[in-house]
Amino acid sequence: MSIDIRPLDDDERWNELIEKAPDSTPFHRAEALDTLEKHGDATLYPLAGFKGQEPVGLFPVFTVSKGPMTAAYSPPPGLKVYNLGPVQLNVGKLKRRKRDRRHRRFIEGVIEWVEREESPRYWNFRTTFDYEDSRPFDWNGYEVEPRYTYLVDLDTSPDELLGRFSSDLRRNLSKEYDVDYEIAEEGPQAIDDIVELTRERHREQNEDFPVTAAYVRELADRLPEGTIRPYVCRIDGEIAGGLIDLESEHTAGAWIANGKTDAPIPVNDLLEWQVCLDAMDRGRTAFDLMGANHERIYSYKAKFAPTLVQYFSVKKWPPGLKTATGLYQAIR
Question: What pLDDT shows up at residue 290?
Answer without folding.
Answer: 92
